[in-house]
Amino acid sequence: MNFSTDKFLEILRNVGSRYFILAGIIFILCYFFLRNRIAAKKIQVSFPKNSDYLREMIYSLSSMIIFSLIVTAIVFNPSVRPYTTIYREIAEYGLAYYLLAFPIMFVIHDTYFYWIHRMMHHPVLFKWFHLVHHKSTNPSPWAAYAFHPLEAILENGIIILFYFTLPMHVTHVPIFFLFSIIYNIYGHMGWELYPKGFNTTQIGRWVNTAVAHNQHHKYFKGNYGLYTLFWDRVMGTIRTDYDAAFDQVKNRKI
User: Fold this and answer.
1) How confident is the model at residue 254 (pLDDT cuts 50, 70, 90)?
2) Domains of the chain: which residue ranges?
3) Alpha helices in the chain (DSSP H)
4) Residue 26: closest CA among 239, 222, 223, 184
5) How much of the chain exceeds pLDDT 70, in percent?
6) How many CA atoms lie within 13 A of 196 on its CB side?
7) Positive/negative CA dihedral, 72, 7, 102, 99
8) How confident is the model at residue 208, as a pLDDT?
9) Per-residue confidence at 94, pLDDT binned at 50, 70, 90?
10) CA gap 6, 22 in Å, rounded
11) Alpha carbons 242 and 207: distance in angstroms, whole number
12) Neighbours of 63 (CB within 10 A)
């Protein structure tokens, strides 16, 4: 196998720094500087233990390493790269396709995540794949990528799907997964950023929120979505107490 250590370290540095810098900023602001001021608005008013933060950071680093290994060994392997759909010039497929690819990636990833997530909740698979992530019953920003190595491999399957199906400009995946990292951190941060009543609006009822995902961590059932609640609503896996939980959090007084 043609494996470039330099490329691996470059990818790990880029991906890891994005995640740890962004999660670190949110963590320092919300869990230290603003903690006393906004504690009453926290989705779960209690805070995780320091050991929880450490576990989440260690597993998140493990996930970043696995992601970098997969991309280096497959996508940037000179023997494999010619079979990928990567291209360098936007003009090759046009600006319209370049822009359209982002919502297409969004829909594919949202669908991919929902179904592998439900699969990992099967009793036979749960303890092997997903239990590590669910040790964060009261997640912090560090929980966003705190996966067991087997789950990390499965989660990163979306990268392979993208690079071997859709024409991917060299900037598509880095830009898309910057958005993905930001939204994942939001979903695990412990506070709800969307405004009061958002969950019942025509758009908001389809959007996955920090409250929705926090419920999933707390109860282990329902609200399996990533960016949206589309599949949860279609498949009947949205929690029946979701709207009440969202309203309860947003109605709290500081």
Assistant:
1) confident
2) 5-35+48-191
3) 5-28, 35-38, 50-70, 95-120, 123-129, 131-134, 149-155, 157-163, 172-188, 210-219, 230-235, 242-250
4) 184
5) 100
6) 8
7) negative
8) 98
9) very high
10) 24
11) 12
12) 26
Could you tell me the two tokens for 76? 């940037």
Backbone angles phi, psi at 29, to 5 degrees: -65, -50
220/196 Cα distance (integer angstroms)? 25
Dist. CA 123–CA 108, nearest whole Å: 26
pTM of the model: 0.95
For 63-86, the pLDDT digits (tens) are 999 999 999 999 889 899 999 999
Name 207's bridge partners. Answer: 228
Amino acid at 227: Y
Tokens read off for 145: 């990528």
Largest distance between two CA atoms of the chain:
59
